[in-house]
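Progress note, sequence design subtask.
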């Protein structure tokens, strides 16, 4: 027994404490305790233990000591645990989650390099951090109000859904000049995950007095976030705006409980989500951050602008910038001055008109739920390789940059009347996606596009026109995505012979052609999440692979005893789920 290296206790509901003889397991290096419902205290551990995991010990309320050689510690779902003993000096990794009664943490050991704290709802302050800490993640600690100065060696910082944390530059207190944006600019589009965003907003409103001062508006948001009412965006718009105004007033005029967002100079990754950060705090924390590689801003409703060019041009290592659900953002500041930015994502910033304020080094651009202006690609975007635009208001004419290395274009879900231009001489285009664009000018596509290797499309009329065009170089991969028409049909064309892979994805169609013999060189066919497709067409003999997923009717027909089994039994690779 004394040579055992790994000890695990699961579901031992009668165990209230560990026997004192446990310290005799001198070779034990890993110890796991999970779902011990009656365990109330831990007073002894094997002396050479290096890894300890304690989970779902909901009655546990006392830990007297940690083993001195411990290097990794994970404690989760211990709701009665109110305090922890002094951490051992050799501890390098610490993870604490869902310990709802934990109000404070003692001094961390100097050798700690990774710290993750999540869903500790009673935790109010983190007063010190060790100098050697390199990764820090804090999430869903709603009562957390104070943070210590971050250590200089920190390389990764993530603060998510800590609604009581307020970062404001001291010169901004008692002043709030950012109230001029009109409320009707918000929530013009239906947003994926709106309920989840509003749920985080409710927590912020509660902690900034909006629940009391805007009770009626708060209740409207609460009903929609909880799924008790339909998503009437106009109602959400007005209710959210009223609560947001109250929150801004609290932050800038009534609040004295703020933190300075002073970042260590070696930081490489910064992730801020669903907490209060002012324009001044963001500006000052980014000054001189020459090592920052990635910046993520999510659900920061209190920023209205990115820092100016003189600040952003100093971010000489920044490669990735993602801004999501920052509803109040109305300016990208000096974005164009970022010297090395390669990937930029902007999602759900309704106050912003996306224009040509883009850095010339950009390689990947993703825009979701925003308004796009006609001059968005007017800059010198010679390195741009990928453009993805989802759910946006588009200009009448969308012209792509003439000198870029563009290889992939995705235009999805827009009811704007528009045409596309600027793609006449691009033999290197590899992928084109045109999905749910009912008012796209088909002729502009035919005139400006010479072909691609991969084509995703939802409009059958447009697809058949493209495949019949003599000026269009046919793709080898054809994906029909989210087609709403009851029957899918293909017009006769020699271009069908060039298609090697055919995919049907999330289509509502019921009927397919009786035969796909026109696809004479087809090698693979895939059906994904098309529940209405009622039968399999006759396949050409060249098909070597078929996959079916999320298509219950088609799946039954393609099983060995099904009606369409004889159509696929000769195929070498079959994947039917």
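Output:
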């Amino acid at each position: 027994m004394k040579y055992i290296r790994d000890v695990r206790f699961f579901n031992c509901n009668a165990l209230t404490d560990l026997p004192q003889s446990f310290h005799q397991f001198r070779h034990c290096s890993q110890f796991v305790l999970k779902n011990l419902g009656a365990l109330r205290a831990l007073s002894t551990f094997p002396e050479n233990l290096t890894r300890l995991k304690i989970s779902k010990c909901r009655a546990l309320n006392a830990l007297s000591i940690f083993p001195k050689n411990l290097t990794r510690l994970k404690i989760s779902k211990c709701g009665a645990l109110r305090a922890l003993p002094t951490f051992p000096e050799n501890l390098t990794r610490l993870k604490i989650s869902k310990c709802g009664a934990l109000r404070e943490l003692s001094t961390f050991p100097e050798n700690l390099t990774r710290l993750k704290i999540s869903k500790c709802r009673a935790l109010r302050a983190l007063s010190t951090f060790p100098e050697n800490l390199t990764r820090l993640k804090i999430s869903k600690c709603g009562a957390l109000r104070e943070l210590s100065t971050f250590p200089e060696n920190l390389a990764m910082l993530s603060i998510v859904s800590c609604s009581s944390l307020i970062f404001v530059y001291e010169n901004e207190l008692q002043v709030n000049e950012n109230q001029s944006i009109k409320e009707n600019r918000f929530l013009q589009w239906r947003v994926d995950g709106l309920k989840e965003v509003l749920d985080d907003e409710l927590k912020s409103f509660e902690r900034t007095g909006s629940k009391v001062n805007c009770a009626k508006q708060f209740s409207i948001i609460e009903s929609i976030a909880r799924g008790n009412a339909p998503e009437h965006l106009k109602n959400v718009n007005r209710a959210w705006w009223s609560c947001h105004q109250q929150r801004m007033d609290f932050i800038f005029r009534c609040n004295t409980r703020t933190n300075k967002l002073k970042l260590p100079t070696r930081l490489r990754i910064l992730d801020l989500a669903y907490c209060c950060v002012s324009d001044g705090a963001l500006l000052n924390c980014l000054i001189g951050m020459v090592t920052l590689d990635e910046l993520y801003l999510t659900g920061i409703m209190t920023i209205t602008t990115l820092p100016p060019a003189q600040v952003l041009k100093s971010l000489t290592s920044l490669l990735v910038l993602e801004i999501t659900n920052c509803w109040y953002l109305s300016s990208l500041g000096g974005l164009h001055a970022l010297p090395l930015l390669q990937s930029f994502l902007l999602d759900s910033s309704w106050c912003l008109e996306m224009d040509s304020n883009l850095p010339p080094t950009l390689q990947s651009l993703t825009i979701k739920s925003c308004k796009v202006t006609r001059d968005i690609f007017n800059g010198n975007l010679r390195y741009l390789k990928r453009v993805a635009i989802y759910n946006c208001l588009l200009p009448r004419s969308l012209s792509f940059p003439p000198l870029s290395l563009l290889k992939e274009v995705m235009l999805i879900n827009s009811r704007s009347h528009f045409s596309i231009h600027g793609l006449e001489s691009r033999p290197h285009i590899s992928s084109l996606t045109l999905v749910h664009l009912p008012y796209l000018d088909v002729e502009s596509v035919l005139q400006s596009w010479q072909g691609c290797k991969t084509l995703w499309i939802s409009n059958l009329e447009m697809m058949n026109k493209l495949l019949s065009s003599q000026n269009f170089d046919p793709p080898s991969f054809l994906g029909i995505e989210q087609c709403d028409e009851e029957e899918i049909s293909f017009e006769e064309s020699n271009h069908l012979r060039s298609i090697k892979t055919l995919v049907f994805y999330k289509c509502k169609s019921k009927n397919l052609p009786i035969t796909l013999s026109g696809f004479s060189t087809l090698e693979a066919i895939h059906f994904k999440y098309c529940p209405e497709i009622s039968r399999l067409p006759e396949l050409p003999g060249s098909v070597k692979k078929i996959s079916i997923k999320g298509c219950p009717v088609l799946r039954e027909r393609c099983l060995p005893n099904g009606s369409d089994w004889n159509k696929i039994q000769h195929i070498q690779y079959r994947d039917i789920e």
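The chain has ten helices and 32 strands. Work on this subtask will continue into the next period as scheduled.
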